[in-house]
Specification:
Distance between the termini: 47 Å
Number of helices: 6
Strand content: under 5%
Oligomer: single chain
Strand order of the largest sheet: 1-2
Order of helices and strands: HHHEEHHH
CATH topology of one domain: Double Stranded RNA Binding Domain
Amino acid sequence: MTRSKQIGNHKNDKKKNIAKLWKTKRRVKDLDQIHHDLQPENAKLLLNQEIDYQLPGNGQHYCLHCARYFVDLKTLKEHFKTKVHKRRLKQLKEEPYTQEEAERAAGMGSYIAPKLIKIETQKMDMS
């Protein structure tokens, strides 16, 4: 399929690029942002959030690796067994890209292979 070339709509005077809106509608966190969330102090805050009625499951059931909210604990546990979650774990095993690595790739240093990080599915509290 081709992308939408429609710009704007009849109801507004503003010119909105509809293709861009479609592209960013289901935007998810990047891997480096998720690596930042996996640090213990950030993970603790994300797993113990206050009740937010705007989020699925009131924001109480969150997958750190996929950055997704779930309706209940059962759905979250089922998610841990899916291909989507397992693929995300595999992607997160490689350490995030850094500025030092970019400089080495540009010829400002010798190449160092990226390190692998041990990633496991988060532990569940039964409370």
